[in-house]
Amino acid sequence: MKQTLQSLLTFGREELKRHNNPEPELDAKYLLLEAFRTDMAHFLMNRSRELPDNQEIREMTSRYREMIRKRAMRIPLQQILGSQEFMGFSFWVNRHVLIPRQDTETLVELVLTEHPGQGERILDLCTGSGCIAISLALKGKYGTITAVDLSPEALKVAAKNCGLLLGGKGGKEDRTDPEVELRHGDLFYALKPGEDSFDLLVSNPPYIPTGVIEGLEPEVRDFEPRMALDGSSDGLEFYRRIALEGKTFLKKGAALYLEIGYDQGAAVQEILEDGGFSNIRIIRDSAGLERVVTALWSKAG
C-alpha cells in the first residue's frame, strides 16, 4: 500500500482516537504539518500523492509516528510542538511551565486598555513562560518590567522567550521594548524592600484547590508543573500572600491585576478588602466567566 500524507493523517487520527484524545483529527494534522515541515495549503495539494521512499521521508515519517505516540500518552500538543500562541506571539514552552492560555489574554488586554503605558514599573509574579510580562513589554509603553518565579527551570524558559521575542530580531532593531528582568524567588522574597517599588502588579498565580487537581484532564494533571497549578486546599493561598506581603512594594495608587478561577471572585475580593485594597472589580472573560480581579492600593507602600 502506497504511503501518502493522507494515509499518515488517517493513521495518526485513528491512533489518537484509540487513546481517547479529545481532538484526534486536529492534533494529528498539526503534528503531520510540523513533522513534514509543510502548511495546510501544500498538504491539501499533495495529500494523495505517493511519498518517495528516501531517507528524508523516512525520517519525517518516523518523527511523525513518535509525535503521535507522545500525544497518545496525552502529552500536551504544545509541549510536543514546543510552542504556544499568546497575544499574537509564539512562546516556547516545555514541561516546566504552564502552557499560556487564552483565558490569561483577558488580563493582559485589560492592563493594556486601562494602563497602556507611561513609563510605569510593572511586577509580574509567577511569570512561568514569561507570557504576561513579555506581551506587556511588546505591546505597552512601560518603564521596567520585573518578572519573578520560584522555579529555576521556568525562568530558563522565560529567558529563552525574552531572547526570542525581545531580542531585536526580525528587522526590529530600533524597537524600544523595556527589558524584562527575571528574578528567582518565592513571590516578594525576590525583591528588595526600600529599593523595589511598583506601579502595577500582575499575576496568574496557582489557584486550583489541591483536591481538584487529580480530577483534571491528564494533559494538565500529569504533564504541567504541579507548582504552577496548586493554590493550596482552597486555591486562595497566593491571593492571601499577595494582599498581605505586596503592600511593601506597591506605590500609592498602584493597580493590581490578578487572574482567578471562575468561582473565586467573591473570595478574592474579600481577601483584598481585608488587606486594605480599594476600587475592587471582578472582570469576566469572553465566555462570561469570572477571570480577573483588579484593585488599587491607596496607601503609601
In short:
40% of the residues lie in helices and 18% in strands. The protein has 301 residues and is of the alpha/beta class.
Describe the structure.
There is one protein chain. This protein is an alpha/beta fold. The protein is built from twelve helices and nine strands. The strands form two sheets. It has a seven-stranded mixed sheet, sandwiched between helices. It has a two-stranded antiparallel ribbon with strand order 1-2. β4 (144-149), α8 (152-165) and β5 form a beta-alpha-beta unit. It is elongated. The N and C termini lie far apart (72 Å). Residues 168-174 have low confidence and may be disordered.
Key traits:
301 residues, elongated, two-stranded antiparallel sheet
Topology (elements, then pairings):
Blueprint lengths: L4 H14 L5 H12 L4 H7 L8 H18 L4 H5 L1 E4 L2 E4 L9 H13 L6 E5 L5 H9 L4 E6 L2 H14 L14 E5 L13 E6 L6 H4 L4 H6 L13 H9 L4 E10 L5 H10 L3 E7 L5 E8 L4
Parallel strand pairs: 3-4, 3-6, 4-5, 6-7
Antiparallel strand pairs: 1-2, 7-9, 8-9
Helix pairs in contact: 1-2, 1-4, 2-4, 6-7
Largest sheet: 7 strands, mixed
Q: pLDDT average, as an integer?
A: 94
Please tell me how large the radius of gyration is. Answer: 22 Å
Order of H and E elements: HHHHHEEHEHEHEEHHHEHEE
Give the spatial strand order of the biggest sheet.
5-4-3-6-7-9-8
What's the β-strand tally? 9
Report the uncertain regions. Answer: 168-174
